[in-house]
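Researcher: Here's the sequence for the chain we discussed earlier.
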Amino acid sequence: MEPAIMFSSRTRPVTVFEKFFTDEVYDLIIYQTNLYAEQRKDEGWTQLDKKELKAFVGIFIIMGYNILPSIDLYWSSDPGFRVDEIAETMTVKRFKKILRNLHVNDNTQIPDKTSENYDKLYKIRPLLDLITQACQKNAKDSSSQSIDESMILFKGRSFMKQYMPLKPIKRGYKVWCRCDSKTGYLYEFYIYTGKSKTGTEEGLGSKVVKMLTEKLINKALEEYHIIITFDNFFCDYTLMQYLYENGIYATGTVRRHRKHLPVLVKTNQKLAKGQYKWRVKGNVSFLVWQDTKEVLLLSNAFHPKVGKTTVLRTQKDGTKQEINCPLAIKEYTKRMGGVDHFDQIKSTYSVGRRSRRWWVRIFFFLLDTSITNAYLLYCQNKNATKLSNLEFRVSVARGLISGFSSRKRRSGSLVNYICRKKIASENRQKAVHVVAEEVRFTNVGDHMPVESPSYKRCRMCSTKEKDKRSKVICEKCKVPLCIAPCFTAFHRKG
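Model: Thanks. This is the structure I predict for it:
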């Protein structure tokens, strides 16, 4: 995989990320989110702008590598949970309000289900198209690519949800991916929306490969040779012949019951380990090779008669032994892992969080895809500073936030608390913010009063009816308190 755009050694990771999450993407989200908030007449909504949206995305990236069980905990007063980089950027109330109103398409314009223009992915379609275009635009197609399926985790209710018992992610949305075999860079992808017609869906795998390789046909014929690898879900003889006629070389394992396979498949001849047999029809070769199990393979790129090699296999006593292997099978193994490599990098610090809205999970997938592709693109630049996946994400998050804060007062004493406690007063009950007991009542002698630069409402005795303010705060609890009697009462149990 080669970058379509070269970067200098001073190029920041956030700049590479914004080659995928472009200004057009930000403008789309800002317009549709503000529109949706207006449509639902959200009280207290203030218009979302570009700086705030970038900070919002940056917060999600931080949450990906700093995982907590609840969103509220990132704003907690407990130092074991609180993440200042998030809490100082915006309030939890504002963050949740943006998340609640987040949209990328107009709900009022959804086509009727009976219409020819009906799109099952309507709610996410504009963003889906922009990210797909960016993935193809920012890197040149390599000569070796693989096609496979990926999964987007979703356990809620959706007509597009699939069940894949053999996959690490068993329930969710299925995504057809075309990736670079070596780096895992994602060039093109399609989200499977289910059967278009009733009954059995025949030839799905073949249709997917043709759809994902359509843009490669002219490049393969005019520029350079491209080899595509895929597994036995997609592979059959007719597909291999079609790809060869369109200038695309391909290799794939094949299922025994596929049509147009040689009679050799039906015989029960047991081969010794390392032995193989082959047949050729037209421009497609068929191989059956005996490893621990039989391996069936079709290829229009490698002739089984040309190129023999060996592979190492571990024996029962732990020693390594070389066994014969056709070149086609060794090359297939070498080139097949592109999508798995992409999934591995993407899932390490994934931004995905639970959501009842089915399309939000896809939004997180698109954000993760943008970060992963940007990282892979950044790594291809020999002049760039070497960064790990984690370091790259940290740099992108901080570049997006870039010192932004929507808080009116950025003070250490302005802390959101995990819980509220009801304390009885004469004729009323009053909610008092409570610091975690492990902080509030431990080593009370360490809690010293210090002067604050301004007067703030006492967290113990101030009410709406009677506003009491103090310039004294507890150095450890970070709450304003009257020096007497509130300071002592606040740190005394009972």
